[in-house]
């Protein structure tokens, strides 16, 4: 059994990719896996099947590998949870919810000082992440949900989605969101109203993600019906995935973060709106460990420096408690 059930590291060695890339492939459903105890295991035959499927076309591995190989440099014990809700209680497992690369940096910093802590990673989008925090399914949520009526990020959503629960929201950083288009922008896309053009096909993010909420709010305020947008129902679950769709000519435009397209060739970024990415915890947890450590890390100069090195982040308000 040990010969046929492989750990994430053994799979990474076979495919010659980073261990985080293996978790990305599992999360996307490209590499079936099983949970044995607290560890993810992949049947050796599934790895061989994956190699056979991608023998002639392997853009996803290359793109995901290049997008995830930089952080974290010291790999913590991270296990992704792709299912909509995490069936676990908040005990010895510590679950951080979110999809952004800044969380890889945060977990790396956290693991350096506490390698006994079992850190788990949920890849739920912003909306579902806050809901999971409300239900006690995760310890930490992150969000970049834009309220078009208030023209603010996250606070109004947390107030409504966590009624009666004192909450602390800390700014991780600001980043730019915009359109991914083919190099040279051959369709001449400049704004939100271009999405309803007959000659434009888009690729979308999944419901509940901050990117999807931003798009839907912009469409609502612009009076554009989603039914009139070609490709609106074509969903992918990461910035890299939608950028790849544009690069491969499967779509003319997608919405994502500035950093999300940098590892995908042939794609150009058109900035549309700065956004705020925030961390959310129960206020009652703020003085407990490891929550206190997390807040201290985000406010540290070393964390800000790593974010700036990663690129695409404004750290002027990083570490500030905004609510």
From TrEMBL:
Q: Where is the PBP domain?
A: 115-298
Q: Which domain of life is it from?
A: Bacteria
Provide the Helix-turn-helix domain boundaries: 5-53
Entries under SUPFAM superfamilies matching the protein: Periplasmic binding protein-like II (SSF53850)
**Could you tell me one molecular function GO term of this UniProt entry?**
DNA binding
Q: Which NCBIfam families does the record cross-reference, listed alphabetically? A: excise
Name assigned to this protein:
Putative molybdopterin biosynthesis protein
